[in-house]
Design goal:
The protein contains three helices and no strands. By secondary structure, it is mostly helical. The relative contact order is 0.06. Keywords: Membrane, Transmembrane, Transmembrane helix.
Length: 66
């Protein structure tokens, strides 16, 4: 088990962990796009509306640019 921690705490381990999360987020975004694309038109409009609301909330929470 010590070898696992040695790897995870090394620079290569941190890079591997970061790449894992990048791949996971990209795969999740791809799955969501595919799922939305097979919804009926009314479902797509509803989902896109909810995404727009979330984007608006995130824009309001973002600190102002200096």
């Amino acid at each position: 088990m010590s070898a696992v921690w040695d790897f995870l705490l090394s620079p290569w381990g941190v890079a591997a962990y970061g790449m894992f999360w990048v791949a996971k987020l990209l795969a999740g975004a791809w799955v969501l796009r595919r799922a939305v694309s097979i919804l009926p038109q009314a479902g797509q409009v509803w989902v896109n509306g909810k995404i727009g609301v979330m984007r608006g909330l995130m824009a309001r929470l973002r600190p102002p640019a200096v």
